[in-house]
């Protein structure tokens, strides 16, 4: 993929036209080859870009506007349909190039498995990395129906790669008993059901650390985000998630990459989910790209 000119398709509102001058790079990972319930998240990145045109450029939460941050929209990574391993390899190669150029990777999924090669690449550059993970699901399985490449496995993969004590999950309300047992026995932090208050307790302990943040849109209650592959009742509100994003922005952690995944527009004709995702990304970019 060329980075010497603006992506020719729809771009996220106010993305910068020049890759070299940009601090962060937004990109899509349109893959949903391993989902266990409803496919469709491969269409998430494109629709998030399209609805972003309805966003105001200014954040009243952060008193910043998108002109204050130079971020480049590189478009979607071309991924081979149905080939999970090759798709993950392509994502990792792409992100390594961004990191080599000193950029902050800002990903849009796609299913949650796409976060695994990104986190792995970021850890290769920042070996003190901590992961902050917002999700309805633990994602700590080693396989699903015998398949180790599954959207139910990325957090287990990164936890085993960087050490479970460096992974902090919030909003979790679904998973196998064995997953919760594994997390507890191996020193991984899991906050069940809640996000904001336990996050505020954890952030001071991560002061000065390099952090990667991954958000699965299904951490939100289906009333706030019905357009996702595996809906799960009992989630948090969009207001709580925004407050959590702002809590990270106001902390002393150093966000070196982040993503928002599992938006499946086809299941939400109201487009509430895509519009929410678009606003969340605006706040993440304005709050975390210093």
Brief rundown of the structure:
With 290 residues, the protein is α/β, with parallel strands linked by helices.
Largest sheet: 8 strands, parallel
Spatial arrangement of strands, main beta sheet: 4-1-5-10-9-6-7-8
CATH topology: Arginase, Chain A
**CATH architecture identity:** 3-Layer(aba) Sandwich
Mean pLDDT equals 96
- Unreliable segments (pLDDT under 50, ≥5 consecutive)? none
Q: Helicity, in percent?
A: 25-40%
In terms of quaternary structure, the protein is single chain
CATH class: Alpha Beta
- CATH level-4 homologous superfamily: Ureohydrolase domain
- How would you sum up the global shape? globular
Order of helices and strands: EHEEEHEHEHEHEHEHEH
Radius of gyration based on Cα positions? 17 Å
Span of the ends, CA to CA: 26 Å
Structural class: alpha/beta
Count up the domains.
1
